[in-house]
Amino acid sequence: MESKKIILNNFTIDYYSINTLIIGSGAASLNAAVNLHSFGQKDIVIATAAFGGGTSNNAGSDKQTYYKLSLSGEEPDSVTGMAKDLFNGRCMHGDIALCEAQGSVQSFMNLVTLGVKFPFDKYGGWAGYRTDHDRRARATSVGPYTSKRMFEVLSEEVKKREIPLLDHHHCIALITDAAGSKVIGALALNTNEKDYKKAFVLFNSTNVVLGTGGPAGIYETSVYPLSQSGSTGMAFKAGATGMNLTESQFGIASLKFRWNLSGSYQQAIPRYISTDPSGNDKREFLNDFFPDIRTLSKAIFLKGYQWPFDPGKVSNYGSSYIDLLVHREISEKGRKVYLDYTENPKWRGGEPFSLGNLDPEVENYLKNSNALKNSPIERVLALNAPAVELYMEHGIDLTKEPVEIAVCAQHNNGGLKGGIWWESDLRHLFPVGEVNGSHGVYRPGGAALNAGQVGSCRAALYISKKYFMPPPDEATFFTEASEITRKILSLATGWISAGNAAGNKKYLSEIRKRMSGAGGIIRDRTIVEKASAEAAAMLKLLPGKIGAESVEDLADSFLLLDHSITHFVYLEAIKSYLEKGGRSRGSYIVTDTGKSGKDNIMNNNPELCLFDREVENKIIEISYREGTVRTHLETVRDIPEQELWFEKVWKDYIEDNYLNG
Fold it and tell me: What homologous superfamily does CATH list for 2-240+413-475?
């Protein structure tokens, strides 16, 4: 790695010349770094806005799942079977599904070797359980902090290998060649530097691995960690194509401490209550919509298995009916909603909650788990005591107080387009982790952790074999990079001159309200079209409205622009889906009225997606060029048939011919 200081437009800029720049410090980014180093490519550097600030190190659930090929027991499994289950989630390319299935064992065992203690029995059998959209017991876990433990062991390995890491470096732009066909570097801000004219950092790199996570910063109601924001917008601006941006996951989560309330948090059957904004007028509002306490108790219980909102689980008093009613209570009635573990659900007219009146599925589960206890808090402690301790660590005592909730954005199944080596259509850019749109409409729980590890390993292998060359010399690089660099420096100078960054928060709030309102679990074409037009107008005006008083403000300002681009492109993708006749699917309901109550959803019974329309069978790809978006419907690629004759595979492997596919 070459580093020096250069002078440009009276700015003193830190300049790095490297083979591969890795942006972000989540489990996927760190795995890319470790694998690159292992494959022999040591000319790498990690640049991250906040080391350990992403989803991997700060998010989880009741029993956070890692999805892999089954490795124990009598039940048969196969790579092709796993690929089919991934592919059957719709709008996922078959070759990507095959890669994720084929690479799952290698990636899983790498984590085991590094120290993630996935459970096994005395014979060495890796225990598994079924997760959502999973036909076999492929799921495993080390508890609520599975991804955190992955981050920890990969961080230790990065330090052990002495891979350079630049913390507090906010990457604000990707730099491309003049033709816009490939990425050649990036520009960042070092927020440890107080003088903005010395804070810019320029990377001249052959490759960029982008691991900045999902679009966490664009939602108002979100369970993404506050420390994560996402920066997909800079990839859109550089010319990378997005895919499946319509497909986000939403679910019930706590607000004060951002955490998914799945698993035992619901299986304990807490009561749902709402209050007015001041905390008065406490009501068990679900009673107005369910026929009896037994049906209500089962729906709450099933939220543990069926945590993400799913329009297919709304009718007939399904578990997702609860999400819909929680959403309506908050968004339409302006009330606050809580989960209360101190008392059992109560029923109108005095019908009591009774352990002897539970649905057999509920009763058997609680009985087999030794959790058939008298109160929700006793049941959750019996099922999973650390789940209560977790909230205690964050200042919330579930034994004494209710926890405020909402239906929150949790994960984006879509993201940037990538091939089987995780390379974007903007060449030499490798999106890994959630920023890569490898998933389709539905995915098995835990598939995201597997995809991040498999994809980052494959990206590292491809770089080490095909893109191992050093970056161009400084003079050659600047013939391509100087124009965008000068524009950004000029923009920063203007913002500092304007001062007063107070207005930036107002624009960020607008973005988040707009995205949660139009791109959440209820999607109405009229509302989405209006929101998209507002996003486009903001995007044009925003550069002239921003002010900054410090380097930190500058980083936030560039992030605000990034969010503005991101939410515009996402809304345009949603609009395209609705205009082409797309129906309810995944984790959202499509309506024509913009209303979300029982009368609209239950009585009118909107069509669930049957995948018999072109827009439902194909992948929406979307690109952003100079303020304009273009959408394209891409045919889903089938799972390829592999030619596994050993002598041929061996020869292709020795000659690296397998990289040409």
Answer: FAD/NAD(P)-binding domain (3.50.50.60)
